[in-house]
């Protein structure tokens, strides 16, 4: 049985994750040289912790993990409430400060259990068939379960992480067989509400941030500074980069925070367009394999968990890369496996473990309407 599971596993996604981790380590080595590579050392420690956790998650049947996920969902909801009473770090109450160099972000690890609990709920709501999710009261229950953590994270405020939950929810609903009329209505609602919110709801400082995002030159020494420096760094790297430890923006401290939000800019400047293209290709392969795992999972539960994870990875990739090149607003979303961050790295490897878990136990079934 174990041999069959091992044979079925999509090992390509683990290979992609490990290559991304190595690239991230190289970038951290360069970006943290001045402080003695402290963050690099901590990232290595977190990687050593994360991989065994991934292996454990990989071998425990995901159905068994799903059974206890509501308990952990409740625990992390409590943690997301308690974290609101902590001292803000960089303007957000998202972390429990354990020591001077160690913080714990509950909203990161909560992703796993929110997706798993929501997947369990979707399966229960659809006992009589996939179309059952289109009943208003069932959709309402699903939105409540997903909405509670999203709301708590949004008021921290951590809009980027909250948006990643929303993306996972969208992916899961799309696969669940939701009626197209709801999709059309949601698109129309967003199209109408966004400009109205900009004109009549948002405070002036929020409007200013949007204006600066659209045109960073409006405030080159303030809100537009980071994105201007990021684009300069990526542009300076050209095809092959300026060389490791040789990037002007990186080594002279113009990029901030260069180990988390703007790690992609560090890679672009020092390793060049070819290296950043490799990163994008690795993510595309990982996401494609993730969708395939969701498509061939042995049951709906596995499909929903896998596609929810794909939604998370997709959002983080698109948002982080998009904000570093000026196409999307800066939200502080890390680049999976590449950016510095212990909570993020552990969560990402747990997600990889779940994808391997689901792929190993699949029976080549595909989505049906």
Number of DSSP E strands: 2
Class by alpha and beta content: mainly alpha
**H-E order:** HHHHEEHHHHHHHHHH
Unreliable stretches = 365-369
Amount of helix: 55-70%
Mean of all residue-level pLDDT scores? 89
β-strand amount: under 5%
- Tally of separate domains: 1
Largest sheet composition: 2 strands, antiparallel
Between the first and last Cα atoms, what is the distance in angstroms? 31 Å
- Order of strands, main sheet, comes to 1-2
Radius of gyration: 21 Å
So what's the overall shape?
globular
Q: Secondary structure elements and their pairing?
A:
Layout: H1 2-8, H2 11-31, H3 38-59, H4 62-82, E1 96-99, E2 102-104, H5 106-125, H6 136-154, H7 159-176, H8 180-200, H9 204-214, H10 225-237, H11 248-251, H12 263-296, H13 300-324, H14 342-360
Antiparallel strand pairs: 1-2
Helix pairs in contact: 2-12, 2-14, 3-14, 4-5, 5-6, 5-7, 5-13, 5-14, 6-7, 7-13, 10-12, 12-13, 13-14
In short:
The protein is mainly alpha-helical. The chain has helices spanning 2-8, 11-31, 38-59, 62-82, 106-125, 136-154, 159-176, 180-200, 204-214, 225-237, 248-251, 263-296, 300-324, 342-360, and strands at 96-99, 102-104.
Structural write-up:
It is a single chain. The protein has helices at 2-8, 11-31, 38-59, 62-82, 106-125, 136-154, 159-176, 180-200, 204-214, 225-237, 248-251, 263-296, 300-324, 342-360, and strands at residues 96-99, 102-104. It has one domain. Mean pLDDT is 89; it is low at 365-369. 69% of the residues lie in helices and 2% in strands. It has 369 residues and is mostly helical. Strands 1-2 form a two-stranded antiparallel sheet. The protein is globular and about 60 Å long. The protein contains 14 helices and two strands. α5 runs parallel beside α7.
